[in-house]
Design a protein that fits this description.
Blueprint: E1 18-28, E2 31-38, E3 45-50, E4 56-61
Antiparallel strand pairs: 1-2, 2-3, 3-4
Length: 77
């Protein structure tokens, strides 16, 4: 959703057996990352959603029943 342009980009590529999302999405470099849980028996996975195109791509699969949230840790030297 772009409030200034008053436009909505539909998201495509999410699984058809979507059960829910894991908390707040994490955004970085024009993409949103969100945990997705499905009903078909597969493990939850993080999906990367391109903000410009709305295309969702499956990424990291989590060995768990559900995921509460997404985030990023930064190591400071």
């Amino acid at each position: 959703f772009d409030a200034e342009a008053k436009t909505v980009v539909p998201v495509t590529g999410l699984p058809s057996d979507l059960a829910g999302f894991g908390g707040e999405p994490y955004g970085e470099n024009g993409a949103m990352y969100i945990a997705v849980t499905v009903t078909g028996g597969d493990k939850p996975a993080f999906y990367r959603i391109d903000a410009a195109t709305g295309r969702a791509t499956k990424g990291l699969v989590i060995d768990a029943e559900s995921v509460a949230t997404a985030g990023k840790l930064t190591v400071r030297k």
